[in-house]
Structure formats: structure tokens, C-alpha cells
Write a structure and sequence with these properties.
Blueprint (H helix, E strand, L loop, with lengths): L18 E12 L3 H67 L5 H35 L29 H21 L5 E12 L8 E11 L7 H67 L5 H35 L8
Antiparallel strand pairs: 1-2, 2-3
Amino acid sequence: MFPIEVETVNIAFSRHNNYKLGLTLSRPLWTWMRLEKGYTLQKEGYQAKYYEFLSKRVQYEFNVRQAYTLALLSRDMVEIARENLEFSKRRLELLDEAYKKGRANRIDYLRAVSDYEMANANLINAENAYKSSIRMLALILNLPDTVEIILTDSLTGKDLEIKEGEIRRYDIEYLRKQVKILEELSREELKGYLPSLVGFISYNFQRPYGFEDRWGGSWVAGLTLDWTLFDGFSPSVKSKKYKIQAEALKRRIEFLENQAKEDIERARRDYEYALEALKAYEKNLRTMEEAFSLAKEAYLKGRMSYIDFKQVELGYMGAQISYKKALADVKMAKLKVEYLHLTSLSTR
């Protein structure tokens, strides 16, 4: 027989140096709208934060306007104290002259000196109270000490009517958004039991390539069905947790809505009481203003004793102070009614 020549090839089934580079891109193709719902939930979360911001801004506005009203009241107290000091100074000058000429006794003269010193002390206290109110206003506004606050308004009897609108509480709107998010999350968690369709494409670059000792690459594309068969009922547990949280917030919203109505009604009653008191103080101020004018004229002409005139003067100054305080009370009560329509003013 003649020998048969056969060409042979040596194939190495194992190499010491193997190299492989791969890149895989995958994307869920169908997840029962979970990706789209995630975007929607992010949008709802942003709106909830915006309502929270509005609630805090309204509270801040109320605090600023309240502090501003108190600062105006303090400034008016300074003006009243300064007017009283000027009048006490003028009266002391007249009594001093009369005392030196023997037309006034020493008791009246000493009373005038005491009244002047007391008026000066009252002015110092009023100015200190005004400075404190300005510092408090600057602190709320977060202004540095180098900034000087100059008040241009004054407490007047204008704009005392309440501007009421619909009740739209930003703090409650924030909680409603939270409820909506929790309810959506509860439903989304249950979709964890459903399969997801995922598409992928990958490229592999390796050496050896097949049975050859060289570099080569290949593309692979396909679809996979991702389905969790058992994970300890985690979706159900999370869904119930979100549902319970949503129910708790619903009960809190119901409580806050009832509380808001009660707070507004209580604030409105306080406003009405303050307005009635203001009218009474205003009437008393007009009466005492006329009485002071007549008493001043009579005293300067010597037809009224110092003690009687002093009583009228103190009554007039007290009427001025009471009226200004009542006016500030009305303005702050008005602010409270208006801002309670927008958010809770409780610090708790």
C-alpha cells in the first residue's frame, strides 16, 4: 500500500494569554410605564417643594410686616414722648419765671421740675424701645448692622379693612402633593411582580478569535425578559408602607383644614374686637384732645390749678398711647386674618 499524506493543523485549546474587551448597552423597552411614572413623580416632588417654599415665604412675610408694624408703633411712642417733653420744658420755663417773680409757689415749681425729668426719662425709654424694634426688624430681614433702616410710613387709620380671598393653604397643598406621591409609589411598587422587557446590544473584541491567534470582534443583539419570581413579597410590603403613610397624611390634612377654619374664625373675631376697641379709643382721644386744648388755655391764663391741668394732660397722653396701641392691634389682627388664608402661622 502507498502511504496517504494528510495535512494536519495544531489547534490550541488553552492559551496562557487570553484577552477580551466587551461593551454592552441595554435599555428597558417595556416596564409598565414605570420609567415615565418616575419622571412624573419627580415633577410632583418639585411642585410639593414649591408649595413648601411658598408656605415659608408667607410666614416670613407675616413676621416682617408684624415687626414693621411694631417698629412704627415704637416710633409713634417716641413722637408722643417728645411732644410731652417739649410741653413739659415749656411749662417748666414759665413756672420758673413765675416762681422767681413770686407769682408761683415752690410746690408747683418742683412738680414742674419732676414732670420734666419724668418726661425726659420717658423719652429715653421710648427711644430705646424704638431702637430695639429696629434691631429686631433688621434681624428678621437678615441685614447687617451697618445698614440703617429709615421708616417712612406711619400708623394711620387707613387700610383697616380685611382683604379676604379663598382659603388656599400652601402648607396643606404641600401635604396633598405628598399624599399623591405616596399613592403613586404604592401602585408602582406592585408592578415589581410584573416582567420587564429589556433590549441589549453588545460588542466583544478578543484574542484569540475563534481558533485563530488574532484579534477579532463580533456584535450580539437580543431581548431579555426580566421577571423576579420571588423576593420575599418586598413589593407588597413597600406598597402597604406607602399606603399607610398616605392615609396618615390624609387624616392630618383633614385635621389641618378644620384647624385652619377655626384659626381664621378666631382671628376674625379678634380683629372685630380690636376694631371696636379702636373706635372707642378714637372717640376718647378726640374728647381728651378737646379737653386738653381747653385746659391748656385755662391754665396759661391762670384759671386752672396745676394739679387739675396735669390730670387732663396725663389723660390726653394716655389717650394718645392707647389709640396708637389699639391701631397697631387692629393692623396686626388684620394681617393675621389675611395670612391665615395662605398658611399656618403656628411656630410649632
